[in-house]
Amino acid sequence: MKNYFKKFSIMFVMVLMLVLGWSISAFAADDGVVGTSNLNNAAENSAKVGNVLKLPEVGWKRYDDTNKNIKYDGTLWTTVGYSDNYTGATHVVYRTTNSNINSSYKFNFSGTKLRILTDYNIDHSNSEKIIIDGKVCNNSPYSTYSSRLSRCVIGFEITGLAEGIHSVVVTNQTLDVMTLDAVDIGSNEQLLPYNESITLDKSTMNLIEGDSGQLTAITTPSSVGVTWTVSDPSIATIEVDPTNGKLIKVNGIKEGTCTITATTADGSNLSASCIINVTRKTEPTPYPQPTDTDYITNIAHAKGTNTNNPGGEVTIIFHGTADTILSIVKTADVKDVWIGDNFTYTLVITNTGTKTAKAVAVNDPAPNHINFNVSGVTTTQGKVDSSSSSKNIIVNVGDILPGETVTIKIPSTVIA
Questions:
Q1: What is the superkingdom listed in this entry's lineage (predicted)?
Q2: Please, what's the b/e burial string for 11-21 (b: 16 or more CB within 10 A of its CB; e: otherwise)?
Q3: 171-182, pLDDT tens digit by residue?
Q4: Domains of the chain (ranges plus CATH)?
Q5: Counting CB atoms within 10 angstroms of each CB, which of 88, 151, 339, 391 has the fewest?
Q6: Is residue 5 pLDDT above 60, yes or no?
């Protein structure tokens, strides 16, 4: 009898240890279990894709498929218990007619490396697409098809990611079985809730035909890629940088309203939109040319005569012979003036012909109520004639070559 109770006590302790051990494993699965040895007790990490890996290797931390930070999309996901799986169970979507296509799971994690533990079997999917930070991985899609059943297998591995937070979306592209048993990441990193968003810095944008504006998408995580669409490209178009997918500018094409939409490119298909209002471009009404002498345009035709003044008060005098055309534009740097105001007239003389205008002189008489400041007159070519006065300015310009321009500035004062 004594031996019987001794054996019974030992059995009870073993059962208690198993119960406690299961509880510890379940608790650790949510917090992550750090690896203490490598596969086959190798000195370095030796596990490869396709290897059964019951526990994480050194430098890795394992999270169970039941971790609250893993989000399962689709209505067919279920948890099934198998002793060969990590913690004795796995998430699975069984083969159906079409409902399991696009079934997926998502999570975020910190760090630079990732392993996904799954089941292999003859009826399992041979095409599971994995998108990290909005981009399809180079070794995606990966296959979990095998001629024999294996559980807790490394189905996917990636290393060398940039330090930081990464988003992961794994999607089944077939009608076959899809499973998730566990996720391994760096031993000092964390599995995080899948938390993704997208917003635009503007909800509306007003443009005039021919104008452009900028629109920026803000995503969480920031590394998630974005695709852009326009509801009506005849109203507005977009220019996108092909290297990073960022919108360079929005161009207003014609009057109307359209919508620009930004959509996350990692499979979550979150989107945000901006309404673009394009209005018609109206040409400004030209300011009417004054009828007085604050704006005078002369076209002087040199035909061998000494003077030629067809349309204004400024006179072109040719002391030599020429056969060309001179254009004169006279402007004032003010619109309205009062007695005592100072302003400046500018005369621009251009040889628009094909031959040189010889020995040109410019004669500009002062309008009524205007005095010229003779000492302040400047010219880009030639000299102010000594006979110039407050009522008349003469500038001996000299020869003007074809296409050449001479500018004369005459300071002036308004008098009573």
A1: Bacteria
A2: eeeeeeeeeee
A3: 999 989 999 999
A4: 29-192 (2.60.120.260), 197-279 (2.60.40.1080), 295-414 (2.60.40.1170)
A5: 339
A6: no
